[in-house]
Amino acid sequence: MAQAIWQVQLSSTPRTLSTIRAQYPATLRPVRINCTGRVTPSLIMRAIGKGADGVAIGA
Amino acid sequence: MLQSARTPGLNIYTYSTVEDVEGFVGNFKVKIRKKARYVNNDCNGCGACWEVCPAFGYNEFNEGLDSRKAIYSSFAQAVPSLAQIDMDRCIKCELCKKACEVEAIDFDQEDEIVELDIGSIIVATGWDEFEPPTGYLGYNQYSNVITQLKLERILAPNGPTLGHLVRPSDGKEPKNILFIQCVGSRDLNMNTYCSAGVCCMISIKNSKLIKQHSPDSDITVAYMDMRAAGKDYEEYFTLSRKEGIKYIRTNISRIKEDPKTNNLKIVLQNTLSSGGLKELEFDMVVLSASMVPAKGVESIQKMLKLEMSQDGFFKEFHARLNPIDTKIPGISLAGVSQGPKSIVESIAQGRAAASSLARLMGKDKYRILLIRAAVEDKEKCAKCGLCELNCPYAAITVNEDGAEVNEILCRGCGACLANCPSEAITLRYYREPQYEKQIDAILEEI
């Protein structure tokens, strides 16, 4: 039961889950992107197609 | 101002607006519209013209306390010292033209567009005073309710009353004065921000000034907090209390006017004492209105494609680590354009902006990361224009060959890529196959 989480690491405001030291389960897999504008429906569907339970897009 | 006007190499365009800005850092092309003054540069500001002019207009500089002529100088110390004609008010009698000894008046003058090549830009558009809605605390309704800027002009030695404190209704000197703080600021219904303690200090300054001229005046300041944070500010505040200026912590909700005397009646309660409600009467009420972004910032924002913060001021690169630059390289902010601040901070920020841009422009080259959009396969491009439409930095132009990316304006966000139906445009270092492999690897064990 894995979830892929997309993390946005903007060059001006690095605020990933690691920076705020939040505890999150191992089933949450972060993927670094430059800007949420980069996320396309095809990428989300690919993740879900490959078995992810969901995709969360973080700011 | 005079010193900057005399600085060689510093060109000042007054009575002008910025019409258009194109380009990018180091290579901006700016169009400035110099509005016609109908007076040419031979004018020496002698004032012979406005002596004879029969038409009047609203004097913006004196907050409408007095009038000026249709031909006038913005204010006594205007730089450059040139007259200008307000054509909405001019009756074209040409008496000014006859009075002018240097023949500086030219009714045929037209607006002039100047095109400049600019390397970097500092946005220092300043602020306007918040205008309370009519009826709010009696503003624009009762003649003796005024704002701080009006009071400043009344107290100014070169102002319409030559510095004598008079109140609008009858021209008498008000003895009993109330200052109301936080008008249009710290207010969920108007502006939620605080004007950085500027209005607090203005009230203290003006109270001390009035008290100095008339030691028998009775001045009260109604505040929520007195924000005297700055060098020597707290000591200044303490001094004003020693001089007998009263500070009452209270929120004023309503003001009533006595129609016979035009005095103002207010019911208030000092929240720091157990005294209960009191009705007080004042000769004049001064509203400490907040700072708001200057009129016309929306057009600057559109031209430069800058972001605005929630409070309506320009958005800085980083609220804590870089309040000077913007996210657009080559454009920096100075003064209240970035947010309310006092003179001290405005100067510090102005110098910081100049220094930041000088550093940038001092180098011959400008370095960028290659994380930029690129059209790698021009044949795939259908020239639909969706990329151009969606680019928040206007970095893409579509011509007959296909989409073209300006690599300096591009900031590598990828919005173009996400919208391209032909997958013709891609983002270097963040391509589709790279992400596909990442997702596959992460979810491999499933």
What are the SSEs and their pairings?
The complex is a heterodimer of chains A (59) and B (446).
Chain A: E1 3-8, E2 28-33, H1 41-49, E3 55-58
Parallel strand pairs in A: 1-2, 1-3
Chain B: H1 2-5, E1 16-24, E2 27-34, H2 48-52, E3 56-58, E4 67-69, E5 71-72, E6 84-85, H3 95-99, E7 112-118, E8 121-123, E9 127-129, E10 145-147, H4 148-155, E11 176-183, H5 198-213, E12 218-223, H6 233-242, E13 246-249, E14 255-257, E15 264-269, E16 277-282, E17 284-289, E18 291-293, H7 297-304, E19 331-333, H8 343-362, E20 373-375, H9 386-390, E21 396-399, E22 402-405, H10 415-419, E23 425-427, H11 432-442
Parallel strand pairs in B: 8-19, 10-17, 11-12, 11-17, 12-13
Antiparallel strand pairs in B: 1-2, 2-7, 3-4, 5-6, 9-18, 14-15, 15-16, 20-23, 21-22
Helix pairs in contact in B: 4-5, 5-6
Structure, described:
The complex is a heterodimer of chains A (59) and B (446). With 59 residues, chain A is α/β, with parallel strands linked by helices. Helices cover 15% and strands 27% of the residues of chain A. Chain A has 1 helix and 3 strands; from the N terminus they run ββαβ. The longest helix of chain A has 9 residues, at 41-49. Chain A is flat. In chain A, 15% of the residues are buried. Residues 7-15 of chain A have low confidence and may be disordered. Chain B folds into 4 domains: 2-118, no CATH class; 132-290, FAD/NAD(P)-binding domain, CATH 3.50.50; 292-362, no CATH class; 373-442, 2-Layer Sandwich (Alpha-Beta Plaits). Chain B is 22% helix and 23% strand. In chain B, a hairpin with an 8-residue loop joins β3 and β4. The longest helix of chain B is centred in the C-terminal third of the chain and has 20 residues, at 343-362. The N and C termini of chain B lie far apart (71 Å). The model of chain B has no long low-confidence stretch (mean pLDDT 93). Classes of the chains: A alpha/beta (59), B alpha/beta (446). At the A-B interface, β2 and α1 of A face α10 and α11 of B.
